[in-house]
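Please, structure for the following, as tokens.
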Amino acid sequence: MKSYWIRPESGKTVLELRDVPAPEPGPGQVLVRMRAAGLNRGELIVGHSVKVGGAAKPAGNEGAGEVAKLGSGVTGFRIGERVMGRCTGAFAEYSLMDAREAIAMPNNLSWEEAGSVPLAFMVVHDMLVAQGRLKAGEWLLVTGISAGVGVAALQTGKALGAKVIGTSGSAEKLEKLKAMGLDVGIRTRSPDFAEAVMKATGGKGANLVVNNVGGSMFAETIRALAYEGRHATVGYVDGVLKSEIDIEALHTKRLTLFGVSNRLRNAEQRAITVRGFAADILPFIAAGKIKPLIDRTFPFAEAPAAKVYMESNAHLGKIAVRIDG
């Protein structure tokens, strides 16, 4: 089968098309004939999922397709059923999913939409619901809101009844997001937005912050938090891994800081997130109250061009790769 692999090269990552044997599902696994997969920026950055000097690895971490084979012990799925989920090696004609990660596709989603849902919206569930405890009427601040996770956070926050503030360097993207419910857009790529957040919230600050950018924004997001505010760190696309912390603010405002990553979680812990997403967010998607935003779809043969497009920062929402047989 055809499969893309990602490898580090001169400080960057490169997608490489290979011919490899189709995998066989083991116990508890589902073999999926992939139809679409979503791109995720973290996978493209050396130091996130690809190690400097490390070996190449199958590319793609989420997708959608039809069940082709069931491993032993798998129940609840049938051959030919349309599923979506997190998986390793999604940029391929076939990929394996842990059956606990596979989710029946809502009928109202296209392949591209379904293939772009799992990672972003499960991360958002972890940030906004499981750890962030976002309530209706609260203020949510999202830095870098035009990226895939940022847009998913906006959509989910609004579905939960929150008010959303977003930062982006593009006025055009912020205007488009206002049509999707963004309450306050702050045009900036710099850590200079805390005052604007305070003004928008009547001097109280954001109840929950989603820091999509990294260490360069950390101190400013702390300044933008309200009393008993919660702060989610989801990535560091800026490459800045360290930042000073205002201990007085942490102490006096009774802040909660937490990270969002699956790197050290075991399979059952990951499955808990799947179940939480299916219970709390999937119904909004199935009812059409949340519609995944796909900026652009590339054919499978042009997956390297999709990577270049993501790295250009021109997109709003998700980028998908369509995998036709």
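The two ends are 10 Å apart (CA to CA). The chain has a mean pLDDT of 95.
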